[in-house]
Amino acid sequence: MGVFWKSIRDNRRGWIGWIVALTAVAAMYASFYPSINNPAMADALNSFPQSLKEAFHLEDYTKPENYFAASVFGLLVPILVAVFAISAGVRAIAGDEEAGTLDLVQAQPVSRVSLALQRFLAIVVAMVAIAAVMCLVVIALRGPGQFTALSPGRLAAICVQLALFGVMFAALAYGVGAWTGRRMYAIAVGAVVAVLGYLANSFFTQIDSLTWTQRFSPFDWYLGGEPLKNGVQWGHAGLLLGFAVLFVAAGTWRFNRRDIAV
Amino acid sequence: MAETPAIRTEALVKRYGHGGATALKGLDLTVAPGEVFGFLGPNGAGKTTTIRILIDLIRPTSGSVRVLGVEPRSSHELRAKIGYLAGDFVANGRQTGRELLTYLAGLRGGVPAKRIERLASDWDLDLTKRIGSLSKGNRQKIGVLQAFMHRPPLLILDEPTSGLDPFLQQQFVSLVQEAARNGQTVFMSSHVMSEVQQTCDRVGIIRAGSLVAVEHIDELRERALRKIEVRFDSDAPALDVPGVSDVVIDGKVLRCKLSGDADALVKALARHHVVDLISEEPELEEIFFTYYRRTGE
C-alpha cells in the first residue's frame, strides 16, 4: 500500500483545501436558509416564469428539501465536486506520466495495476472524506439553520449520492488518462461530460426534443431521484458506481498493456 | 550449465505506434553477470528504447528479452533487483530528497536509513531540501543514489553523469567500480568516453536500432590510433614503418598516427637524434565515431 499512502501524503494539502472549501460552500448556502424561509421570498420566487423556475430548479424554497436540493447540493457543490474529481483523476496517471515522473515509480517493483488502483483508491478516500465532512457539518447546522425538518438520514443519503457522483467523474478522468496517457484528453472528456450532463439536467429539459437526455445525465443520477425526500436512490447509485467501475477497469486494463510515454 | 546472462535480448524489435518509427531492428545483446557493459551510440540510435524495454516501461514489438533470466513483463518483482536511472531523471519537486528515497526504498522492500544517510553525506547532498529547489546537478545526484542505494544485482543507467560536474563524474566512476567489485552487473549508456574507459569491461555500439559491434575495452585500446609527435635535432626524416600512417613533416617535427605495437617505430627512430617524443593516450572516441558513421552493411 506504499503507493496509496504516498498518494495521500503528496496530495494532502490540496485535498484538505478541497474539503474545507466545499464544506464552507455548503455551510454558507445552508445558513442562508432562514432568510429564504419567509413569505416575501416565496412570493418573489412564485412570480418567476415557470420555465425559468424549472431551468434553475426554483421550486418552493420555503421547504428545506427543495431549497437544499437546489442551492446547497444543487448549484456550486456538484460542479466543484466534478472539478475536484476530474483534476484528481487526471493527475493519477496521465498527469504524472506527462510530467515524466511516472517512469521512476513504475521502475520499482510494483505492478502497473496495483500502482494505478492504489492511486485511484486514494482519490476515492478523498472523495468520501469530502462528502462525509460536508455531511457532518450540514447536519450540525440543522438547529441553528432552522432546517430540522431535514432528517440526518436524508442528508446522509444525498451525500452518498454526491460521493458516488464524484467517484464517477474521477473514474472517467482517470480512465481516459490511464488509457491514453494524455492529460488534455482526460480533462477534455471529463469537462465535456460534466457540461453536457449539467445542460441535460437543466436547459435541455426545456427543449422537447432533448428532454430524453436528462436520463443520461450524471447530475440526474445524483439529484434526480430527490434523495433529500426519498433517501438513497439505489438505481441511480448503481449507475454512478457501475460507470465508475467500468471506467476504472477499462483504463487500468489498457494502462497495463501499453507503453509508458517518455 | 553456463551462468544466466544478466541481460539477454534476441531479435528485439520495437516499433512505436501504428506504422511509426522503428527504434530497434532486431537487437541481439548479451551482458554477462558481473560485467560492466557500456552501451554507446549516437542520439536516437535506440539506447533509451532498449533500456526502457529492460525495465518494462515499454513493450517490445517482437523478439525476446530476459533480465536476470526473467522476462521483464512477466514479473514486477524483478525490478526490486534492478537499480534504474533514467536519462532525464525527474521526480515530483514538492517532496524532499529524503521523502523520495524513503518511499522508493519502501517499495523495494527496504534500505537501511544509515545507508541512505551515508550515501547522501558522501555525495554532499542535503536530503531535507525539496527536490524542486535543488540544482540540476543535485537532482541528478538523487537519481544516482536511488539507483545504487539498495545494492541491486543489476544497475541499468541511462546517461548517468549528465548534469554532473567532472568531480562528481569521478565520484560516479568510483561508485561503479565499487559495484563491479561487489559483483554487481552494470549496464550503462554514456557519451562520456573517459568514464566508459575507466569503468567498462566491454562496450556495445548501437546504430540505427541494431548492434554494430561489441568489443572489449582493452582490445579497442590496442586498435586505437595514438597520435605521435617526434622532434629531431635536424630536419625530420621520412619514415616507412608498419602501423604508422598520416605522416606529416614540418621542419624538424614529425607527426603521425600509430596503431598497435610501438616497437617498429621506436626502432626506426633510434637511428636518429630524437629531442622529444610525445605519444598521446589513444582516443577511443575516434573509434566510436568510425562506428557511428559507418553505413549499415
TrEMBL record, chain A:
Transmembrane segments: 15-36, 67-86, 120-143, 155-177, 184-204, 234-253
Keywords: Membrane, Transmembrane, Transmembrane helix
UniProt protein name: ABC transporter permease subunit
Source organism per UniProt: Paractinoplanes globisporus
UniProtKB/TrEMBL annotation, chain B:
MF annotations from Gene Ontology: ATP binding
Keyword terms, alphabetized: Antibiotic resistance, ATP-binding, Nucleotide-binding, Transport
UniProt entry tagged with the keyword Zinc: no
Chain segments annotated as transmembrane: none
Pfam families assigned: ABC_tran
Claim: Nucleotide-binding is one of the keywords in the record: yes
Subcellular location: Cell membrane
Topology term for the membrane: Peripheral membrane protein
Family of the protein in this entry: Belongs to the ABC transporter superfamily.
Protein name: ATP-binding cassette domain-containing protein
Taxonomic path: Bacteria, Bacillati, Actinomycetota, Actinomycetes, Micromonosporales
